[in-house]
User: Fold this.
Amino acid sequence: MNRQTGTRARGVGLARPGAGRAWERAALGTLFLALLALCGLFPLTGDDWFREELGRRLTGPTDLLETVLAGWRTYNGRILGNLLAYAAGSRRLLRELLRAAFLFGTVRLAAGHGGFRTVWGTFLTAAALLALPRAMFAQIYPWAAGFFNYVPPAALALAALRLLGDLFAERPVPGGVPRAAAVFLLGLCGALFVEHVTLYGVWAGAVLLVWSWRRGIASAPVAAFCAGTLLGALALFLSPSYGLIWGGGAYSAGLWANAGENLPVVVSGLISRCPVLYLTLTALGLAWFAASRRTGLDRLLAALLALGCGCFILCGLRGKWTGGEALAAVLWGAALWAGCWRWLPKGERRNRALFFLASAGVGALPLLAVSPIGPRCLYWSYVCLTIAAGNLLSALPLGLLPRRPVRGTALGLAAGVLAFYLALFLPIHALEGERLAALEEAVAQGRREVVLPAYPHGEYLWEGDTDKIGSRFYIQEPGDLSISFVPAEEWAGRAGR
Assistant:
């Protein structure tokens, strides 16, 4: 029996097929409710205020669609991202339900792709996907506009790859119209959010189609996914707004001229600021090296992994990245991919690890040519690296470890991360209510100026204290209410006088 088969049979409780017991369903339901509670604590930030006012003015589905199409013609081609963000404006319950559902779906699907078949693996994945670098977290989860443009396409891509999952085990994907239609729609819809994820989808569809054809396992669903991604990319990039790219506008200052400047930003945002992720990947890679037959090439790859990890630690401590250190990160990624190819036993988990490691790089590659970029743009790559780490972990022959400590660790990590964020956002949520009351009072009294308390832990919010609130609260027209912020303690003192 090979190591991979043995791992499946004797795993540590993370890769064992689920028994469908009631307590597991209850545990997953509890996780969903915890995510819903967390989403309910997020305040409106940044240009969410614009969408809040826009949503308040929308009269129905027809008006919503006309607004989205107007944006496609003038602003960007993100049809579904804008549709979800606009529909959720001024509809708090819908907004939080959608956010909890997409986040839970991303966690559950990522756990499956990572080789975790039970609720414990889902808890572990939830902890990993919630523990984003602070700057990325602020632009992805609390900021509704960021969430609806970056999390749903990740969930849709993972769902499509789940339906095509037999490819990773080198088996033909079952045919049939329903599956082919489903992956076609998932590929099409996933392409209507953000540009670099759209380009990734085209790459993934083409790679899976060619790979399955060369192994004689191509099928209609694989071709349907490829066609869906291509059609979606066509619908997105036919937007007249992308004329800005060639005109040197908001999306680019010269395409390739940005690559040298953006490379340190991309690799620092994806690697240097994610120490848990790169330390885990390095440790798992070296663990597989230690368990494998070692040649000179293997030792070279292991040395590149260790040196790259040391470089990341130094860069993180120094807080500065240069082009040379970015090159070290690229070499580290290449060494990790090659090491997985050589050290993991052939089979589904190795194929998944290699695919998602490559996916992380391909998902980030288009960002080198556009400007501006932010940590939110690297969310899909972060998800892919998390899945790759899951496959490296779940494939290890750890069957002799006792299950209870492993399960307790997974549960403890998920509960700890959720408790941290709930404790952090509870006072923010309470202060949000006071700020809204002060704004409503100022508008009702016709005042032209209002002072608001600044949010605590503002580093976890994207533009939490912003005058963009004026697009929702105003006297006669947006922007005529002057809004300023003071520390919460100072504001409380003013209110008490």
